Structures are given as C-alpha cells and as structure tokens.
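User: Show me a protein chain along with its predicted structure.
Assistant: Here is one chain, sequence first, then structure tokens.
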Amino acid sequence: MPGSIKTQAVVLRSIRYGEADRIVHLYSATRGRIGAIAKGSRRPKSRFGGRLEPFFRLNLVLYEGRGELLTVTGASTVAGHARLRADGGALMAAGRACDSMLRLFDDGEPNQPAYNLLCNYLSLLDADPAAASEPGAALAFRLKLALAAGFSPELGSCTRCGEAEHLSAFSGSAGGVVCSACEGDGFPMTEQAHRFMVEALARPLAEAPEAPGRVAALSDRAVTETLEHHAHVHLRAVA
C-alpha cells in the first residue's frame, strides 16, 4: 500500500539520472536492498546536499508508490565516513564491500547481520584507512558476509565424508575443505590459510588476523569459488 516509510540505510551505489535526479541503490536495516530515486538531488540547492553518495549511512524517509523505485523525500546523515573518502585504498575496499552486498542480496529481504557487518566494516575503514592495505580485514568481511548470506564454507571437517583429519584441499563445488581421499576437483589448501579462515570467522571484524600473500590468495579463492557454485555470483577479487 502506498505511503511513507522510515529506515536507516547505507548507499551502495549512486547513478546520475536525467538532468537533475539521482538513482540510489541502498541497503536498509529493515527493508534489505532498495532502489530509490532522489528527484532534483543534483541541483546546487538540493536539500539532500552530497549525502546520497556511496558509503553514506543515512536516516531516510522514502515514499513507496506503485513503481519499482521508491522516492527519497528526506535524508539525514548518521555517518559520512569522511576519512574513508580521502584514501584511495579505503575507497576501493569500501567499493568492493558494497558491490558484494549488491550481488549477494536480493531486493526486499532484510538481513540485519549483513547490514551490521557492512556498517562495522565501513566504520573500520573510516577509523583506520590504512587497514585497507591489509587484506585480512577485507577477507574477514567477505567470510562473515558469506555466513550472513547462508553460504559460509565448511571448515571443520571434510565436506564430502566428514573426516576431521588430513584436510588438505578446498572444493568450491563441495562448499568447503576436503580430505586427501576426497580432494577431487579441489585445490591445495595450506594449514595457514585454513587457520586464517577459521580465526577470521571467530574473531570480531576489528581483530581480523593478518593474511600474508599466499594465505590471502587461497582464502580469497575459497570464498569466491564457494559463492560462485552455491550463490551463483562472482565477487571482485580481494587479494
């Protein structure tokens, strides 16, 4: 039924539309992914100012009519992440995170853990933009996001036979680690990369373990292949 709604959301993507409007892709705490149009938002005296740019966290008032796009009628800033915007590496990391949200989550299906995770990651990048140069936090975010989406890889035992020992490889098609007897189409997984993934899921995002070169590459491949096979999405590489 048409009417106004209030929600908090993060701007994932912002696209110029027409002469003065802007279409924004949002992830909302209560409504999941939302597409909305902000009419006149690109005019110099727009009441929205620069708030409708990616990575802003906003309190929004939206009008929901009969069309696919909602209309932004009010916006106030919760977090603008100014330090993040001043650092190229942090901007790229935030862009990958928002792109992951767009690819993994459908319209109209709220996921509070995923929303909280995105907010925490953007806040982390804003507090310490240099964190973007260490892939550990980005990979921990991606692992936790896969968990929130219901596609977390199996790391405790062989996905095919249940064996808890001799876990030597990872299979994206099987969705987790596999033992030497069940390796099949899997790729070799080092003990260090396996341990990183387990610890990254267990620790708070701000305490993500370090992920040196090969550890980062293997962990990134494991998450990417799991999501390709089971969520049917391809995410931009972290490592």
